[in-house]
Write a structure and sequence with these properties.
Blueprint lengths: L3 E6 L5 H13 L3 E6 L1 H11 L6 H9 L8 E4 L17 E7 L1 H9 L5 H11 L3 E6 L6 H12 L3 E2 L13 H16 L17
Parallel strand pairs: 1-2, 1-4, 2-3, 4-5, 5-6
The chain binds flavin mononucleotide.
Length: about 200
Amino acid sequence: MTERFIVGITGASGTIYGVRLLQALLACSCEIHLIVSDMGAKVASHDLCLPEEGIENALASLAAGGSAPGRIMLHNNRDMFAPVASGSFQVRGMAVIPCSMKTMAAVASGYTSGLLERAADVTLKERRTLVLVPRETPLSRVHLKNMLAAQEAGAIILPASPAFYHHPETVDDLVDFVVERVMDTLGVPMPRARRWGTQGRKG
Ligand SMILES: Cc1cc2nc3c(=O)[nH]c(=O)nc-3n(C[C@H](O)[C@H](O)[C@H](O)COP(=O)(O)O)c2cc1C
């Protein structure tokens, strides 16, 4: 059976992490429901030097390597009637990547002002895997408390914090290290993921 996941992209810098996760999930034949927050669209446009108009489609087609993003379903963040707003819609899990401190606060408090936050809230209440990939530095006490609250509620906090023991040579190497850990956490391990103690793949 095809695995189904929700991917949320918020307004933290590092849209590329989200795009590479979409690529990795597509490569594993997963069905993806993509939600981009309003600020996620603006920051994606800035980070990747793409027009803001139609950015969700552009991200999906970037992930699909320029071809039709067949298994990526796009949802408007204001569409609270979307299937992913309900726990009765079966998904394996959700990743918010990158995850802003604002969305982290929403997850920690259960205050859902858009579809992305609602989907994360539903993922928690259904006790499905929710991976949050924060990107902020330095972290305030408020950020840290929200991360702890989200973790205590069941989320997995997986910071965009690549290691260097695999001798990265490119930005993609650094990004993919984080994406491989997200894939592991979602339970869809990549066959060629770099792992300590194995040869792993290079590049
Ligand atoms: C260029 C740019 C980069 C940003 N980077 C970050 C970031 O790395 N982490 C973060 O928490 N917020 C960052 N922000 C601020 C968020 O976009 C802002 O808090 C926004 O309200 C998040 O909304 P969202 O979580 O609904 O996407 C950035 C804003 C801009 C304009």
